[in-house]
Write a sequence for this structure.
């Protein structure tokens, strides 16, 4: 087993535990932890089954198999960032709605004075 | 305006417009007695809210700045909650003349349209503009005309009147970032009618346009993208 794969395995396992810990302490919502957990488990599987990685690398004509790990890692990061921007969009829409309602409510409140 | 007529709300979104807001509100109340004037103060840091109140407007002060679209939609929400029949939006900088309001109201009262747009370009008016700006306007006009399947000249005009159907629509959905252009396509997508009427506009009393030349390319790209996405929905 190549050193990078061992390193990757340790990191991935640690990562999954950190994610679970965050969810347990309610610092991360379950719904947002799913993608991260999926990512973590995928990295664990790829690190332990280096044969899969080699086969995949050969098939894609990647000379150095662990490089494929980086590629997959970066791609999944992009997906995760996209997920975050979706969440931010949803949040900002809610903030706008709340701001508008607060403005209207404040107006109604002062009218009765 | 007679007492049994439709209930009309004038919505004026304002951000740091203390210099012009009082004049604008007074001019509307003077020319159109009987209407309700609502100033949506979009988190201004100056005395916009006080000036508006002193001039006789109702004022909604947003606790934070939302941008023109968010402020505008607050007005439509208010109109929707309070069962107004007609909502008219006017810029706070004084470039829209309150004497022209009746021109916007007429098509709504005759049920010829659901949204009436006060346009600078439909006839020869005294409005002057720079070349770059004109090109942008033509591009947007073409784009909207194709996507909305209706000829629209002055797509960025913020001088418009809508009936209860459009009030309800805008209360539910309104673009926060570039509302003038986008809302036209939105209205047409919902099977509602737009009518453009020629109006005179003045040079603004105070303040700057929210669209500076620096930002216009960025603005055009964003608006075009938003329009395409809107038309795909």
């Amino acid at each position: 087993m190549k050193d990078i794969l061992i390193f990757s395995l340790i990191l991935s396992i640690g990562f999954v535990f950190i994610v679970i810990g965050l969810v347990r302490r309610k610092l991360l919502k379950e719904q947002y932890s799913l993608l991260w957990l999926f990512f973590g488990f995928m990295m664990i599987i790829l690190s332990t089954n280096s044969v899969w990685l080699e086969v995949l690398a050969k098939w894609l004509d990647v000379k150095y198999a662990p490089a494929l790990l980086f590629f997959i890692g970066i791609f999944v990061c992009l997906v995760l960032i996209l997920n975050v921007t979706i969440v931010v969009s949803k949040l900002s829409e809610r903030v706008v709605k709340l701001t508008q309602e607060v403005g209207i409510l404040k107006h109604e409140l002062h009218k009765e004075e | 305006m007679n007492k049994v007529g439709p209930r009309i709300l004038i919505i004026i979104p304002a951000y740091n417009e203390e210099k012009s807001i009082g004049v604008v509100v007074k001019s509307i109340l003077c020319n159109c007695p009987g209407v309700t004037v609502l100033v949506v103060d979009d988190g201004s840091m100056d005395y916009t809210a006080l000036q508006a109140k002193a001039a006789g407007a109702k004022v909604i002060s947003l606790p934070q700045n939302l941008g023109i679209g968010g402020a505008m939609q607050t007005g439509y929400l208010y109109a929707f909650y309070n069962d107004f029949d007609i909502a008219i939006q006017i810029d706070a900088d004084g470039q829209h003349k309150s004497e022209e309001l009746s021109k916007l109201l007429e098509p709504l009262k005759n049920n010829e349209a659901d949204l009436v747009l006060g346009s600078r370009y439909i006839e020869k008016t005294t409005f002057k503009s720079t070349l770059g700006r004109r090109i942008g306007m033509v591009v947007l006009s073409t784009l909207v005309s194709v996507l909305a399947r209706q000829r629209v000249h002055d797509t960025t005009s913020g001088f418009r009147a809508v009936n209860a159907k459009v009030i309800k629509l805008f209360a539910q959905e309104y673009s926060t970032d570039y509302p003038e252009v986008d809302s036209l396509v939105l209205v047409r997508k919902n099977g509602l009618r737009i009518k453009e009427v020629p109006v005179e506009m003045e040079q603004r009393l105070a303040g700057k346009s929210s669209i500076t030349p620096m930002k216009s390319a960025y603005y055009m790209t964003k608006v075009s993208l938003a329009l395409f996405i809107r038309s795909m929905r």
